[in-house]
Amino acid sequence: MKRILPLVVLVIFSTIAWAQSVQDDLRKIAEFRRMSPSFQKDTLLIGTQINLATTYNRLQKLDSVRYWLWESEKMLSKTKWQRGWGFFYRARGQYYVFNLKKDSSVADFIKSIAIWEKEKNWRQAGIASARLGNALLMDLQFDKSLFYLNQALKTFEEHNDYFSQANTLNYMSNVYRSMNNYTKALEIHRRVMYLVGKYKLSPDLIQYKHVATSYLFNNMLDSGRYYFAKEGIDIDKNPEKINDNFTYNRLTEFFDGAGMPEKVVKMANLSLQLAEKNKSVAYARTAHEMLHKSYQNLKNYEQALYHYTKAQQINDSLEKAEVSLKLSQLEMQYQTQKKETQIERQRAELAISKQTLLLNESKMSFLNKDLLLQQALVAQQNADKKRKEAEFKIANQQQKVAMEQLTQQNELTSQRQTRNLLLASIAFLMTLAGVLFYHNQSLKRKNKEISASVLKGQTIERKRVAADLHDSLGSTMSSLIYTVNAIDIQKLDDDEKNVYQNLKQMLDTAYNEIRLLSHNLLPEEFEKQGLAEALKHFVRKINQTKAIQFDLSIDPKLERLPPKIEFELYSICLELINNILKHSKATQAQINLSARAADRSNGEVKLIVSDNGIGFFENDSDGKGIKNVKARVESLNGTWKIDSKQDEGTSSIISIPL
Question: Under a CB-based contact definition with an 8 Å cutoff, are residues 615 and 644 in contact?
């Protein structure tokens, strides 16, 4: 009686503690839901919900367990919190153990172990391994059960976790008792009692009922009765205090082996009542089988037939459930194969899209070549214009020589003729000078028109290329992103989800870079507000999308420059920045644009582009980008100096006369 009272008090206090834990968790969930949206809020809410589901599992309130696990799974699907998935699979695996869904519980525990091993969390991985070993025991897979239990025990021993060692040893004792190896089971129970005594662990870790049955099957009846008494149980007077199907089954086996069928009937009936109360089909079947055997020994054939029929009915229902499970597995395999086929088709579509992207890149390359050809034609026209100006100067000089000779020949004529000729010559020279002046002005005007046409042609071509990039390639990328977004990620496994996320991120990056490229070919700010505003907008954009941070400095005294100079300087900036992004491996870069003199007619504009990268080329480099920069600087009669040092970065200093 003295032993029973503390046990009753312990059960009452445990029930009160669990009920209080439920109330505390419900209160915390209400508080967390009122918090502002954040990752921290989601993790706190998920962790509390999983903890609440675990408490309901202990209280055998399986509907509540199912609800809170479902709530947690919904949130985890959105937050992608990996540790949360580890806790979730372990809690749901334990829930499936109580529901006798053996395959589902094993699958969830294996997922939990994989997550904790990836997170390098030895304790959580060990707990999941121990729970998996216990779940495999329910399916009578003793070898696999002992494998995972020994794996967990080794982990806890390596880290001196004595509490978890004792828990795992208790699971192992259940396996050996189920295998009828009671000698090994008793050895393990003694190890648990040793750990509890040496390290002052909770006495509740000692499973006195199981220790007692192990002693019974080792033919130590007195020791068995002693340890049952520690639980307040007298197996002769109050066996109903056991309240444990596993122990009832061990006792029925013991009394059956001892040739005591009346005791077997009593224990089996108590086990049957408890199994029906807990809706445990497996334990109910075992109880009916033992009652059938005992009533046969007692020659009570009516009761023996009744319990035999009940046991067969349970076996039939379990076989039907097994068939249903196999059908479900086949359906799952079919759906998986179907999903894999869809993924293969999507991969093929993605390959076609990549080919389209390469084709568009080829078109862009041809457009660049056309632009270079047009620039070469303009250069040829400028050379022809200079040649004609030189020929005109030579003809003018020859005419002057001829006029001087004519004047000398007519000096011998009369004064009147000389005066008349002189007046005529003066009139002719004035007319000729007017014609020359008019022709010279016409050439200058044509030169300006040609330059304006070149600039306009380059502007139009850049607009066309930008539009093609945005409309054609941009539309293709948008379609790809839409197609990928249409994939139902809920049907993907973890590896496929990782592939899906990587693909989506790569497509988003490619789409953003195409938009940036199409905008930077000729931004609206350049046409409306000029070079300075275009560079400011460009640097803001590139700082949002690249790892290299650009610092832009523009002289406040700098006014609007001639269109050709602004256009060429912007193009030069694009080439130099592109080289930094591709080759420099820099983390920072600077762009400085300034004017040396206030008087624009005698001054110069200076552009400095530098980075802190690895240094990348010498002055005689023959890269296409470098050739473009050289050609543009020379077209503006400017100079370009490069200072590039190994692991110290590169500076480009460009001076353009105004």
Answer: yes
